[in-house]
TrEMBL record:
This is G domain-containing protein. One of its GO terms (molecular function) is GTP binding. InterPro entries: GTP-bd (IPR006073), P-loop_NTPase (IPR027417). The keyword Isomerase does not apply. Gene3D superfamilies: P-loop containing nucleotide triphosphate hydrolases. Residues 8-97 form the G domain. Signal peptide: none annotated. Keywords: Coiled coil. It comes from Ceriporiopsis subvermispora (strain B) (White-rot fungus). Residues 209-340 form a coiled coil. Pfam families: MMR_HSR1.
Amino acid sequence: MADSEVIVAVMGATGSGKTTFINLVSGANFATNDGLRSCTAEVQTSKSFALLGRQVTLIDTPGFDDTTRSDTDILKVIADYLCNAYQNQKKLSGIIYMHRISDSRMGGTSKRNFTMFRKLCGDDTLKNVLIVTNMWGEVSAEVGSAREKELATDDILFKPVLEKGARMLRHDNTLASAHRILSCLVNNRPEVLQIQDEVVNKHKDIQQTAAAAELARELEEQKRKQQEEVDRVRREHEAAVAAQQEATRRALEQERARIAAEEARARAEYERMRREQEEARIRTEQQAREMQRRLEEEARIAREREEQTRLLHEEQQRQAVQQAAERERLRIELEAAQRRHRRHRGGGDCVVQ
């Protein structure tokens, strides 16, 4: 790895602002989500950027409370990436763990994420770890400071890692704040994470690592609690059935009656709709036939009018021919009469000697 290259992993629970932080400081455009669904399902690497004369690359990791993949899958994805990077001579100069100061308490999911984070890193690398609290704009300064103090002083929260060299910083969602946070890591000596040492150096299978053991313990604990909850619900159900069997029977009968009435209503509604559709179909067909009849009648009238027009035109032509013939006859008769008249007048002018 080049001396100027700084690689920093960003970890934390789903929705803790990991991807938003990386996009802000690196100019990346990784998908983010304001809802409950995870956007980061795989490890993502930002484009490198310059900071304090070093080239910094950030690694975006999915949380162990991912909504689309199991914790086991997430562990394998992160472990594979980190171990492959280590085998390619790329070690982390720092790890940022994002935590929402807006969370009123650190619940089971957040604690599980942080526990898995510790098992991935190991205690020897905690001096390169920054716990970054964000979303300060969502709480008052007084509330945020009180939560920050509790996180730093509670033995089951961040106190153990802070005592072993980790530091806790605030992020106010500005580029200057992000640069200030990263400036605390750029000059660190890159360290080998516990998961990298176990898999690469000690040739352990991922399932044999401390992180996997912790995950198995967590899963077993979840399974035990779920079984206890199932047993409790079953006992309560059995007690309720025993105490309220008659009420349950009546309720079931009422529900059956309601369902039967609902089905009858649905059938009646279906039959009504079917009749309406049939009536509509008949009306449509009748309208279509009536329209066809009107069109045919209009076509017949048009043909009759066309025929009348044709006959009238022929009659007009015939009359025109007759009138022309009559005019010709009269012209001829007139010319003949004029000739007779001229001859008559010429005969009267003769002198007999």
